[in-house]
Queue: 3 jobs
Job 1
Amino acid sequence: MNKGTLLLLFAIFTSGCTGPYSNTEVAAKGGNPLPVRVFRTTLETIPEVITANGELLAEEMATIGARISGRASKLHVDLGSKVQAGQVLAEIQRDDYEFRVRQADALVNQTRAQLGILDRPNDNVKAEDTAIVKQSDAALQEARLVYDTSAQLSKEGVLSRFEYDKARVRRDAAEAAYQSALAQVMQLRAQLSQRRAELALAQQNLDDCIVRAPFSGSVTKRQASLGEYLAVNSPIVTIVRQNPIRLRLEIPERIAARVRMGQAVDVHLQGVTLNRTGRVVRLSPAIEAQSRSLTIEAEIPNEDSFLRPGSFAEASITVDSAAQGLAIPTESVQVFAGTERVFVVNGDLLEDRIVKTGRHLSGERLEVISGLEPGLAVVRKAEDRFTKGQKVQVQ
């Protein structure tokens, strides 16, 4: 094989090896330059973020049970029902508790009658104003009057010693009866307070026959059935509050110091295009020893209840909203064997740059982490036919 044939074969071989990472360089001279469109890389505001995975949790979750025992007479909600704070969830049969209220009220009126205040609007009464004490006081005054008269007559020799002593004993007995009347009134007042408390308790039990929602939310489970006898604290329904919803994240210790209260958190769910933005509201005071991570919580608006507790979520936390960086169009990047590169125009020749990209930004752009600097003329759309050293014409 002569020398000319070998040169011809070499030229054919090298012309077929022009892949993205071929070392072949097209001569700067000769051939028609390829038309390309370029843009200049400039620094722009690209917020710095850190990413983490976590779980969505209900802001509030409670299992509502029966505070009293009884048979479930009505159930107003079921799985998936939306409820408002104070809304009736269930009702317990009331008959027994109504009877207890009447009984307690009757005992209250009985004590009020003994105190002589049944016709009064309140329970305020002075011991001296009650009939019991007034009667004892009258008897005491009479006994004192008899005693004083007997003492005077005894001094004058008109009354015998026996009659004088008898008057004195009657006076002492009247004083003791007066003190006993005062004690009886105090006892009745205490009894009235006790029976008032018993009436209030009976009324509270009657009110507890109506089971209400403690907060607005949705029913996730109904445990009771209509007609079922419920013991005290028997669960009836479980409700959750989903707005705002809570996002719990584990942040690695090496970057945990950059997380602050109030930072923006963007939430992304797998298989869902809808994204939500919230704020960091809670930071754990300690690092978890086993996972070497910091637990944080964010609150995410969820008025439409689209986000559900228990869902797995990916989150991006904006740690520096004023950070500067470079961004390029997605179509400027050429990917081959897992390596990313872009083409820049230097004079009228192409140069390739190995780059590392980060997040997808708005407008079909990519964040550039490394490989480029400001002021470069980057080809707007990379094509497979481009090679390093190729002559181009900027349009």
Note: The radius of gyration is 46 Å.
Job 2
Amino acid sequence: MVCKNCGSNLQENFCAHCGEKKFDEHELTVKHFLSETLESFFHFDNRFLRSVKKLLLKPGQMALDFTEGKRVRFMKPLQLFLILNISLFFVPGNPFALSLNNYVTYKPFINYNTRAIVAEEIKKNHISPAAYTNRFDEKIKSVSKEFIFLYIPFYAFVFFLLFVYKKRKLAGHLVFACHFMGFYILLSIFYSFFVEMPFYFLAKTNYSQLFDNISTFSVQAFILIYLFAAMRKFYKASVTWSFISAASVAVSFFIFIQYYRMLLFFIITRFE
């Protein structure tokens, strides 16, 4: 038989050249279509849950397995990151996006002349402040998720610099960066549903500087602990250098998030 996909000689149930399954006209039934769809869904579901479980419980192991060729049971790094990124659309508190009120009220944002920029945009678009605020807040929810992929090459380069002596290929650092950002998204989702939302619901306020400071410190501590374990596993680095590297990334992480938030502000106000 000949493979319907690539034309190669087909001797088994699957083509050795392209992986296409041998065609059988009896499969063109509603029953087979539904069973195949369900099988694909549950297969995806199992791989996703396995990947998330290993990502959380065994830091660095999945990245190590991927670079060593053990890839069948888990989702590809970028695929997993993209799915987790999509899940942010369903989370009320997006850590990468802020409302316009934050940009024109709090430091360090107002240091970048945000108030004057917003006033200029309102005047130029002949729109009321309330209408512009609603438009901005809706836009940043989607834009923040569209550009989050920039973190992957950025942190891949950071990990490359930190572990240049290990002489790993750049692709390995990209894999590790994907999993690191995937972990942070999961941490953000957990934080949003089980910490932030309950606190503000009980406190009956929209913002608390003390709570924000405690939350930032707590998330940094989780990042430090996770990266320390992941770096020990993936890079086989010493205890001392793993701690220094993890602490450096954890301490600077929210500094880079602030720059990312400012980037989003200028994208929306200047180019959208």
Note: The CA atoms of residues 160 and 173 lie 6 Å apart.
Job 3
Amino acid sequence: MPKRWRSRAGWPILRSKVVYGPQLARRAGVGPEPLRAHPTLSGALCLLVAAYLAAAACQQEIPVTASPKKTDAAAAGAGARAVRLVPAAETTVARTVAATGTLAADEQVVLGTKVVGRLAEISVDLGSLVKKGQPIASIDTKDYQYRLDQAVAALKQARVRLGLPADGDADRVDATQTAVVRQAKALLEQAQLNRDRMARLWDQELVARSELDAAASALQVAESRYQDALEEVQNRQAVLLQRRSEVELVRQQLADTVIVSPIDGAVVQRQASVGEYLAPGALVVTIVRLHPLRLRLSLPEREALSVRRGQPVRVTVEGDPAVHHGKVARLSPAIAEQSRTLLIEAEVPNPGGRLRPGSFAKVEVVVQTDDRVVTVPASALVTFAGVEKVLTVRDGKSEELRVTTGRRLGEQVEIVSGVKAGEPIVVQPGNLTGGQAVTVDK
């Protein structure tokens, strides 16, 4: 079969060879029979037909084109996409430092027994709300009541020995007015008179020397007895004070049989039961203060420099959509070497007990209230393969701007870098990419 060639217009072209001259001649209508005996005529016919076909092909290749300017404008108008632009806004917001922390009770008290005994009563359980001074539990008081009666009797005895009434609160006496001192003083005075008398008689040579010496010795003994009487009164005074202290001690032990709450709070654990024999220091209940709560969080070293005491904090916890407010109360004086973080404590009011100690909290520390930032609508942000960008329009075409985002402020997103305030941004770009022709909706 002969090889067939096609022109640009699609017309078949036969390769002109002498061997096919007769067939072409018949198509041209030269004669019904092949002209094998005349090779010169066959070659001429072939050249003629080839020229005719080439001329037809050239006529088909010439396209009818419109004006180039009109075609480009029509194509651009047909492919342009309508977009809406909004300017990047400059907004004043509070600059915050985000962190996570833990809510803890401002105070936690583990109540135990001060005295030994059997637990007679406990009036609270897990979750019970208590007030400061409210009785929580009590120890059996019979043994301590007996001890108190015994101590009171010993106190009365000591008062009587000092010459005081058995009942009363005044424990101080004048030692010279007690019976034992008055007696010793009388003997001392008698011995003094007797020695003086003997001395006068000795001067008159009416008595022997031995009698004078005996009177002098009796005077010394009387003086010693008088001094001993004064010391005895002081000793009895000390015994009286000791008995008074014993009474007060037993009364305190009797009072300690009732365990009271030292703070307002709630019971988080009960560690003893009625009838249990408790030693001194045995744990009974654990109480925590619910208002205010203490928020503990750690901030990186680079963020800690902007935190000051008294700055407001915003707290949210899991399961509670409300935002709770507090303030920075305490800052650690040192950076933790292992984590390079600064420990911060904030006070969070909790009057209704809505927050619970031990909760995980998300925290924002407001370090500046008038920070000016650039924001764009969240719908203008395009994220692909971890790269964030927005689109703008320049010279009738879209252009991509790579940006770095910050916080989400409701329907707006903070732009840290990549866009300046007032720069037009495409809203809801969809699948729009950079370099596409666009038209701006007014």
Note: Residues 1-42, 54-78 have pLDDT under 50 and may be disordered.
